[in-house]
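Action item from last meeting closed. Structure (288 res):
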């Protein structure tokens, strides 16, 4: 090797290198590799901030921390805020009963304690279609969803029927005061299942904040990034996002950077373990 015949300083001077380049040749290439990994994460998840990007990289076995990822994302101009578009889909002018807010300041500590729901629009080339989604607050899991061409009550009845067939009925169902959620067919389905009905006050969308944030995620990470050919294409792509990407791939900071499926499985496994310990202790006390 050249280093065995000539001093390192002479070699670096001849090649126009700083001596540090010789001693630490992997630093630049490793930095480039991390940037490429960041680009890949951001390409798949355009709305991820530096903290979520960091956790996604760590799941892929990259040894990076928040500060480094934040610095690199700033250097790469990838830390730009996303512009959000809003559209009114709630009509609270109706003759149906209103219900009090039961979730204000409520501690949510288990799955299917509280379901929340909301509606958003999807712009196609020649028409608007509408998406209704039901989410379990504790796990952030999607319990039911439906896509329709109109804002009538059938739009919300389908996801609710789907959710009640798939999961245990929630203790509380929370929504805004929109006519789709206050209609008799909808509320009867809830009361027949033994569910308590809760609604945000009119003019206070923040009281349905969990559902609002869910819809914002769906718009930013799927709808706003897609061009659907028609209704059926939208149904297919949005369904893929909700059932596969959101539930099984998208990590949530509120869930300790796990996916909804991972978080719920982990929680139920811990509950089963705790239940097993309690049962063994009770058996011991009976034997004694």
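Sequence:
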């Amino acid at each position: 090797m050249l280093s065995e015949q000539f001093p390192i300083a002479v070699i670096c001077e001849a090649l126009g290198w700083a001596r540090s380049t010789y001693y630490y040749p992997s630093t630049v290439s490793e930095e480039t590799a991390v940037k490429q990994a960041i680009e890949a994460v951001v390409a798949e998840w355009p709305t991820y901030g530096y903290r979520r990007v960091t956790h996604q990289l760590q799941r892929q076995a990259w040894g990076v921390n928040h500060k480094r990822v934040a610095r690199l994302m700033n250097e790469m101009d990838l830390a730009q805020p996303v512009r959000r578009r809003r559209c009114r889909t709630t009509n609270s002018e109706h003759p149906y009963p209103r219900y009090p807010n039961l979730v204000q300041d409520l501690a949510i500590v288990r799955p299917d304690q509280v379901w929340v729901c909301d509606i958003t629009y999807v712009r196609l080339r020649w028409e608007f279609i509408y998406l209704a989604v039901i989410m379990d607050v504790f796990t952030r899991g999607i319990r039911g969803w439906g896509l329709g061409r109109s804002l009538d009550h059938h739009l919300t009845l389908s996801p609710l029927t789907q959710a009640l067939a798939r999961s245990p009925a929630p203790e509380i169902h929370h929504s805004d005061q929109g006519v789709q959620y206050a209609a008799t067919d909808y509320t009867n389905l809830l009361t027949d299942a033994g569910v308590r009905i809760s609604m945000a006050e009119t003019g206070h969308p923040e009281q349905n904040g969990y559902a609002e944030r869910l819809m914002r995620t769906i718009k930013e990470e799927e709808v706003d990034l897609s061009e659907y050919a028609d209704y059926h294409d939208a149904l297919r792509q949005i369904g893929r996002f909700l059932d596969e990407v959101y539930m099984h791939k998208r990590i949530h900071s509120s869930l300790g950077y796990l996916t909804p499926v991972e978080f719920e499985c982990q929680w139920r496994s811990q509950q089963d373990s705790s239940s097993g310990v309690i049962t063994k202790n009770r058996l011991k006390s009976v034997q004694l």
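Note appended to the action item: The chain has two domains: 2-75, 114-250.
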